[in-house]
Automatic annotation (TrEMBL):
Source taxon at top rank: Bacteria
Any single biological process term in GO: fatty acid biosynthetic process
Taxonomic source organism: Alkalispirillum mobile
Pfam family, one: MCD
Classification via InterPro entries: Malonyl_CoA_deC, Malonyl_CoA_deC_C, Malonyl_CoA_deC_C_sf, MCD_N, MCD_N_sf
All copies of domain Malonyl-CoA decarboxylase C-terminal, residue ranges: 165-424
Descriptive protein name: Malonyl-CoA decarboxylase
Length: 475
């Protein structure tokens, strides 16, 4: 409500400034945008500046994908720092070592397009248009690497504008939240698709909680939201959590809160982190409302496991055929008998063509392989799995492996249906976070620590193709 009132007020200011600013009306859209952006940089009047910014925002919002790409190229080519000016300022500071010269150097190093973005952000609907513009930018980066500096500038500003201190945590409920927000949940849910309104209603029932982060400039747009189920014991399968016909539980009997879906909603805010702050605030809300709940954990996907096990992709330290053979050695006979082939690794991959038909024989070796993936497979000097990085860097510990916990096609393709629980223990979160970010250590539950010793022995004894091992025994 406040944002709509503010936009109307700014629109009134812009209307008064329109006659003062005289925005360029060149029929060539790109020339008009360039001239208006340059006028923005020199504008001193508040009303005229807002009017110019509004004109640019409206023009950019009306562009198609190709037009927005041309506008981004314009910003890259015409609104970067002037090389000669930067070199001259650097030389002056080198000779003088004066604070004033350092400040001047910092001023001229900053690309003018950053100030253009700041001015546009102050226009009515400017924040939304800039977030959408970055969606185009991210889609075009591969084809247009010259846009990387523009992306760096815009991401830098978005991180500041969407600082967690500006975000508002809201509970989303069936009875109190507006219908348009419900539609957004259906649209943005990215972990477990919401199949119907009945499905959504069950996910917002009394034994569930849903929280989202919102920004004052985008009041109707969730930035990220988390779905929580209040249950008894650690959840090990998604089906009971996602069944719209499941009975509503008694919250007084629940001892565990399961975070089963975390969805980022705004593609244009990729690289701007919200999830760690969201989970900690939600835990605080749940602890206050349900002080008897003992455990806070996730039921999480493992999106990169199947590709890693097939030895696809670029890993600093990954699976090899010898490592897989060593890790499944205890189950080799059962695998070869079930598959009808003599080689255990070939037998494993053959059975994985229809894993749900062979759950009993696959559960143990696949759990061992998944634990190895989460603790030993490396990319860019850290764990390879993106979901694991998220939770481990937030201070969770890897609690349990859940074989064939999700039978959806998405999860079968990504991880053969395997999932895991990460557990958040309030008094250990900060220590676990420090251990992971400083040393890369994956903190494990006591049960997984025992299994990890065998995995390390198998992994290190067969590290013949991907270089020296980097991980360590944890816990």
């Amino acid at each position: 409500m406040r944002n709509r009132w503010w936009n109307r007020l700014v629109d009134q200011v812009a209307d008064r400034g329109l006659g003062l600013s005289r925005p360029n009306q060149n029929p060539d859209v790109m020339k008009r945008l360039e001239e208006n952006c340059r006028a923005l940089l020199t504008s001193r009047g508040e009303a005229s500046g807002v009017a110019l910014a509004r004109e640019v925002v409206r023009a950019v919002d009306g562009l198609d994908e190709a037009g927005k790409t041309r506008f981004l190229q314009l910003l890259a080519e015409r609104f970067g720092p002037d090389r000669d000016t930067v070199l001259a300022a650097a030389e002056r500071f080198r000779e003088s070592d004066e604070t004033a010269d350092l400040q001047e150097l910092l001023r001229v190093v900053e690309p003018p397009r950053q100030e253009v973005f700041r001015r546009l952000n102050g226009a009515p609907d400017g924040t939304r248009v800039l977030v959408r513009l970055r969606e185009t930018l991210l889609r075009q980066l591969k084809a247009h690497p010259e846009l990387k500096p523009v992306n760096s500038d815009l991401q830098h500003l978005l991180k500041s504008w969407f600082n967690p201190g500006f975000l508002q945590l809201q509970r989303i409920s069936w009875d109190r939240s507006p219908a348009r927000l419900m539609e957004k949940l259906i649209q943005y849910e990215s972990v477990h698709a919401i199949q119907s309104w009945d499905d959504l209603r069950r996910r917002l029932a009394s034994d569930r909680r849903c929280f989202g982060f919102f920004h004052p400039a985008l009041p109707d747009e969730p930035l990220i939201f988390v779905e929580v189920a209040l249950v008894q014991g650690l959840a090990t399968h998604t089906a009971p959590l996602l069944d719209p016909e499941s009975p509503v539980g008694n919250n007084d009997e629940a001892d565990t809160a399961i975070f089963f879906s975390i969805s980022n909603c705004q593609v244009g805010l990729r690289g701007v982190s919200f999830g760690n702050f969201l989970l900690k605030q939600v835990m605080g809300e749940l602890i206050s409302e349900f002080p008897h709940v003992e455990r806070y954990a996730t039921l999480s996907p493992v999106p990169g496991f199947s590709r890693a096990l097939r030895m696809e992709g670029d890993y600093a330290d990954g699976f090899t055929r010898d490592r897989i053979a060593a890790l499944i050695q205890d189950d080799a006979e059962a695998l070869t008998v079930a598959a009808g082939v003599s080689d255990p690794v070939d037998a494993l991959h053959q059975l994985l063509e229809a894993p749900l038909s062979h759950q009993e024989v696959l559960a143990e070796p696949m759990s061992r392989l998944l634990l190895a993936y989460l603790t030993r497979v490396r990319r860019h000097d850290t764990v390879a799995d993106a979901v694991a990085r998220f939770h481990l860097s937030n201070g969770a510990r890897l609690e349990q492996i859940d074989p064939f916990a999700d039978h959806s096609q998405t999860r079968m393709d990504a991880s053969y249906g395997m999932m895991v629980n990460y557990r958040y223990i309030a008094e250990a979160v900060e220590e676990n976070h420090e251990r992971f970010v400083k040393t890369g250590e994956v903190v494990l539950s006591r049960n997984l620590q025992k299994q990890q010793k065998r995995i390390n022995a198998a992994w290190d004894g067969n590290a013949t193709k991907t270089g020296a091992s980097r991980s360590r025994t944890t816990g």
